[in-house]
Design a protein that fits this description.
Elements (H helix, E strand, L loop, with lengths): L8 H21 L4 H7 L6 H7 L9 H11 L12 H8 L25
Length: about 120
Amino acid sequence: MSKSKEFTSSEIKQFHSIIIKNIKQIRKEKHITQLDLALSIGHKSTSTIGKIEASLENKHYNIEQLYKISKVLEVNICEFFITPPPLVLRMVIDFRFYPFYQNSKHPLKSYHPSQASL
């Protein structure tokens, strides 16, 4: 049996920060308000989501909330854990943004991160 790993509070805080930033970015990309998201996952107000996004009161999403949010935002839950944030990753990988690439036979031409297997 291996020795247990020590985790710093800074490391855990950074982990939560990545998740929060990714969810916020995806939410905004899809033009979903904090209120719409809150109501969709069973909350009655934006209070919790607002505090989480503002990093107040050491609030963060639990696994059930992450699951519900992934369904509401129609993304793979894995996108919440990606560094750099998903939009940057999609722009780097999705070469269809570049006109010269349209007629290419590159194997990644039809790739989208949602097809990734982790």
